Amino acid sequence: MEILMKTKQSFFLLGKEKMGDCSKAGEWIAELWREVNQSVEEIAPFIIQERDNLPIAGWGLMGNADKSFLPSQKEGVYLAGYESLCPKEPLEGWTIYEVPGYKYAVVTCTADTYEAVFKEVLYEYMPEKGYNLIGPVLECYDPRGKAEEFELYFPVQKTGEVHYAKATAADLDEILDVRLKVLREVNHLPEDIDLQSVKENSYGYFSEGFLKGAFVMYLARLNTKIIGIGGISFYTVMPTYHNPTGKKAYIMNMYTEKAYRGRGIGRSILEMLIEEAKRRGVFEVTLEAVKDAKPFYQMCGFETMNQEMRYLW
C-alpha cells in the first residue's frame, strides 16, 4: 500500500449533508451522493472546473453530529459535494464548508478495501510516524480516475504549523543533509571541505541505529521542510550504585534552522528525546554543548559535569 504525503491549502466544499448511523454509513451516504449528482446543475456555476469542464474533484467528509466536522463517532454528519467558489448568498438545500489547509497522508482504495485501508493508516501507519488525526478524513473522487477507486485524505498537520515526528529510514537522505550542515556550522567548515566519508559512515550509523532501536531521532517540519532535528543514542555501561541498570543515553545533533530559533522548537524536540529515555528506563542522559548553547540546556535542567576526562590520539 503506497501512502503519499500531500499538502492542500484551504478550499470551499459545496454540497449536501445528511446525518446517520456510522455503522450503516455505506447505505445512506450512497443515497446522499445520488441526490447531490441529480441536483448538481443548481451549483454548476460555483463548481471549480478543469479545461474539460469536469469538476476538479468531488469530496466527502464525515464529522460529528454537532457539525464540528471533527472525526466522527457513533452518529455522524456526512457532507458530499464539490470543490467550489464560495457563493455570496446561501443556497437553499446546500451547505458550504471551508476545509482548512492541511498536510495529508493520502492513500488510494476502493469500496471493498476501504475498511482495511482506513484501519491500517489510522492504527498502524500514523502511530508509527508519530502523526495524530487532527480533522475529518476526506474522500476524494477524481472524475478522471478509475470509477471504482478514490483517495482517502488523513489530515495530520495544519499548513503553516510545525509538526513533530519520529524519524524513520525513509528520512535518511534529508537527515544526512542536515547532519552535514550542522557539522559545517559548529566546526566553522567551508563548503569545499570534503565530508563524504562522514556522510557514508553516518548513513551506516543511522541505518543500524534505526533498525536495532539503539538510536531515535525526532524531526520538526514546517510543511515538508525539516527545520529542527535532534537524536538520542542508547547504550549500556557497567551498573553502578547511582545507575543500577547501567542504561545510559546520549543526546546529539540538536539543531534548529536559524530563521526558526527562539520559537521553542529545540526545547520541544529535547523534551521528546528525554521522554523517550524515560520510557526505556534510562535515568541518566548526557550531551555535549557548545558555549552558546549551554544556557539553553541549563534552563532545560541539565547540569555541568566536572568529573569526566577524555584521552585523544
**Helix/strand class:** alpha+beta
Describe the main β-sheet briefly.
8 strands, antiparallel
Q: Structurally, how many domains make up the residues?
A: 2
| Global geometry | elongated
- CATH architecture call of the largest domain: Alpha-Beta Barrel
The counted number of beta strands is 13
Strand proportion, as a percent range, falls in 25-35%
Q: What is the top-level CATH class of the largest domain?
A: Alpha Beta
User: What string gives the helices and strands in order?
Assistant: EEHEEEEHEEEHHEEEHEH
**Can you give the mean pLDDT?**
87
End-to-end separation: 50 Å
Helix fraction, binned, reads: 25-40%
Spans of at least 5 consecutive residues with low confidence: none
Question: Taking Cα atoms only, what radius of gyration do you get, to the nearest Å?
Answer: 25 Å
Count the helices. How many? 6
What do we call the CATH topology of the largest domain?
Multidrug-efflux Transporter 1 Regulator Bmrr, Chain A
Oligomer: single chain
- The CATH superfamily of the largest domain bears the name Regulatory factor, effector binding domain
> Biggest sheet, strands in spatial order?
1-6-8-7-3-4-2-5
